[in-house]
Q: What sequence folds into this?
């Protein structure tokens, strides 16, 4: 993944702009990297060494987390048994079921959804030049929530139906926002304001639906709204993988425009970026990526916000790298999934040893914390830590 | 006149400028009076309209004499309290939003940005799920306390830097605390059906079922908050130009922000405790007030203080009559009524600015 992926941060500038003479070091050149030529020079890009390293490390972390989450749980399975269940489908029947039908698809889904969220966050933050931006700016998440709640409350639908409802709702509200905001071109501020109004209206509809339905339905809608991977199976993974097969290459291709767009429209078009086309393409991609993630796991908070920022911090690059944001997002969500699936098991373990800490009774032992809870809490702690760390610098 | 205008070199046609300024003030003053009239009309409508048909005369006499009749009970025990709560909550949210947007220099800042809503919600969930409370009155104080604790946390975190509580640090600290509390709320409510059941109704925001005692209890906090906010109008105007320039104009930056945060906490905490986390009002009303008056907070604050209860009372009255039976919570109606108007305004303006 790393080669093609890091190509996205190819120094587009150095290709698009007349290169300064030998000896002169342009301000955008300090990225140490390798130049890669494909198809006898028809496609050349630069691989930033540090970015490649970050991507590799993040992918490694995600893979390790995946292996660990196959083994541990309320029903611990030894690594050799996991391998036997995984590759031969033999051994303890429960182990085979847990590994193949629950732990593996959910862990894979965490990795895929995390990557999609990370990239979509990078896209929206760069386009709006706002480090706290998300697809919610244009009403996607609230529309998806309305769609999902409608399906859960009125049809009591399963995961597939809910996913379809969420995607339809999200796309419909994003389309509505665009329609209402466009008036001889989409103006940034108008888009944000209309998105805000539509989001508020959908929020009203959502709370109306939640208060007028049975507690049971409302509760399952609530779990979906928190964001969870529990109960997801191979069909979700297949859908997700198929969607990413199309969206990822497009994101990596268009992603190289992101750094230019971050400089502002005038400068970007001066540097040879087709600004309008690139922006619309990137918005569509961002919505698509966020959409598949929301469809499979609900509106998991914070990964889209934190992954691009952590990636930029680690790569020490001047702008965001799509590949690094995706890889870090994968690692983040995989880790959060592992933590939340082990939360109650860990609590019970502590309770068994320390009497007065027995917070979990037997009926709760097999509960799984929705992964959205973990990402929200950890995300908040992460932001607070960033604030605390920078307290001396005078910057935010 | 804004400080920016005051600083500008006197134009040659000084007299014209002065006349135009006077005309502008007159217009803004008239607008304010019109809004007061609309609000009074809505107060009358709010005590009059409802499922029980009453004549205006009956309402009038019921307000002054308690003759023990059913109509008097409906007016005095149901409609009057919710009207008063609507006035109080509306004024509080509108002003809190305007102060919040000025303090953080973010025109799209929500009064809940300081973690007030998240703190109040978390306290309510905790109160029901862990402490085992169930009465509305005890939960009101729990919510208020939660809002205050969350804001203090946000302020301490935001002000911990060498530069003090800069707008960006405050916003980030608010986002951090809100996110963590949101996660905790999610975790508690997913596994505790009772607290979720209360939560889903509380989260919408409603004025129904409140009594006059609630207004009496919370009014002091709101009054102090409103007073502090109005006193801060001038220094906040100066801070709008940036910390450096504000300091040069004689504003004590850190003290102004601290007082503003205290005002927002009192206003927003009391409003949220009384009616639940009503969104949209505190965010959009100050924005519209700014479009009407310009950036001077000495006008934006009174306009927000009147526009917000107008929106809230209209929504509450509509919510009572819109469904064939039962009623719709005010929090659900506000956005449905307000957002289309807001979107139409956004679309009509040729140049949209914040």
A:
């Amino acid at each position: 993944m790393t080669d093609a992926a890091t190509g996205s941060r190819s120094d587009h500038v150095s290709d698009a702009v007349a290169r300064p003479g030998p000896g002169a070091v342009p301000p955008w050149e300090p990225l140490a990297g390798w130049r890669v030529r494909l198809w006898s020079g028809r496609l050349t890009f630069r691989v930033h060494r540090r970015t490649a390293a970050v991507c590799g490390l993040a992918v490694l972390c995600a893979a390790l987390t995946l292996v660990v989450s196959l083994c541990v749980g309320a029903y611990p399975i030894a690594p050799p048994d996991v391998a036997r269940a995984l590759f031969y489908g033999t051994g303890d029947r429960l182990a085979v079921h847990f590994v193949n039908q629950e732990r593996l698809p959910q862990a894979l889904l965490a990795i895929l959804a995390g990557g999609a969220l990370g990239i979509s966050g990078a896209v929206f933050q760069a386009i709006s030049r706002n480090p706290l931006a998300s697809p919610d700016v244009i009403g996607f998440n609230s529309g998806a929530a309305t769609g999902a709640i409608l399906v859960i409350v009125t049809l009591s639908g399963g995961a597939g139906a809910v996913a379809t409802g969420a995607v339809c709702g999200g796309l419909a509200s994003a389309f509505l926002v665009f329609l209402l905001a466009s008036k001889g071109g989409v103006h940034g501020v108008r888009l944000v304001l209309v998105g805000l109004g539509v989001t508020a209206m959908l929020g009203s509809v959502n709370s109306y639906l939640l208060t007028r339905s049975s507690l049971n339905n409302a509760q399952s809608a609530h779990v979906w709204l928190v964001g969870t991977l529990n109960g997801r199976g191979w069909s979700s993974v297949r859908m997700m993988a198929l969607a990413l097969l199309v969206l990822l290459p497009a994101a990596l291709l268009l992603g190289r425009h992101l750094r230019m767009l971050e400089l502002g429209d005038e400068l970007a078009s001066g540097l040879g970026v087709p600004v309008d086309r690139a922006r619309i393409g990137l918005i569509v991609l961002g919505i698509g990526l966020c959409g598949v993630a929301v469809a499979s796991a609900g509106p998991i908070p914070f990964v889209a916000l934190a992954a691009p920022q952590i990636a930029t911090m680690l790569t020490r690059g001047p702008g965001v790298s799509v590949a690094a944001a995706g890889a870090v997002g994968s690692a983040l969500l995989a880790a959060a999934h592992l933590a939340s699936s082990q939360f109650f098991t860990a609590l019970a373990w502590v309770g068994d040893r320390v009497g007065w800490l027995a917070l979990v009774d037997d009926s709760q032992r097999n509960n799984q914390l929705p992964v959205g809870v973990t990402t929200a809490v950890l995300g908040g702690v992460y932001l607070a830590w960033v604030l605390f760390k920078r307290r001396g610098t005078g910057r935010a | 006149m804004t400080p920016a205008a005051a600083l500008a070199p006197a134009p040659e046609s000084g007299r014209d400028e002065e006349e135009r300024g006077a005309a502008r003030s007159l217009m803004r003053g008239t607008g304010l009076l019109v809004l007061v009239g609309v609000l009074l009309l809505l107060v009358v409508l709010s005590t009059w309209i409802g499922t029980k048909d009453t004549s205006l005369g009956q309402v009038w006499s019921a307000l002054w004499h308690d003759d023990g009749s059913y109509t008097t009970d409906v007016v005095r025990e149901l409609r009057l309290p919710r009207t008063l709560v609507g006035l109080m909550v509306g004024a509080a949210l509108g002003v809190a939003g305007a102060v919040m947007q000025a303090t953080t220099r973010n025109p799209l800042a929500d009064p809940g940005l300081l973690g007030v809503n998240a703190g109040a919600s978390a306290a309510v969930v905790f109160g029901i799920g862990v402490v085992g409370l169930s009465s509305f009155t005890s939960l009101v104080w729990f919510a208020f306390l939660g809002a205050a604790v969350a804001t203090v946390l946000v302020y301490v975190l935001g002000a911990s830097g060498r530069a003090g509580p800069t707008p960006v640090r405050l916003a980030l600290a608010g986002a951090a605390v809100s996110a963590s509390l949101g996660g905790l709320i999610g975790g508690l409510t997913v596994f505790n059906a009772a607290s979720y059941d209360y939560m889903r109704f509380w989260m919408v925001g409603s004025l129904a079922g409140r009594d006059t005692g609630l207004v009496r209890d919370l009014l002091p906090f709101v009054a102090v908050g409103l007073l502090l906010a109005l006193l801060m109008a001038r220094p906040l105007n100066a801070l709008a130009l940036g910390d450096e320039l504000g300091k040069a104009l004689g504003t004590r930056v850190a003290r102004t922000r601290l007082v503003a945060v205290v005002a927002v906490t009192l206003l927003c905490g009391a409003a949220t405790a009384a009616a639940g986390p009503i969104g949209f009002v505190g965010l959009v009303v100050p924005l519209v007030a700014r479009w009407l008056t310009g950036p001077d907070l000495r006008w934006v604050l009174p306009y927000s203080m009147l526009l917000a209860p107008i929106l809230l009372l209209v929504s509450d009255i509509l919510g009572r009559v819109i469904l064939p039976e039962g009623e719709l919570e005010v929090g659900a109606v506000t956005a449905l009524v307000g957002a289309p108007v807001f979107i139409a305004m956004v679309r009509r303006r040729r140049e949209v600015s914040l």
Remarks:
- The domain at 53-392 of chain A is CATH 1.10.3470.10 (ABC transporter involved in vitamin B12 uptake, BtuC).
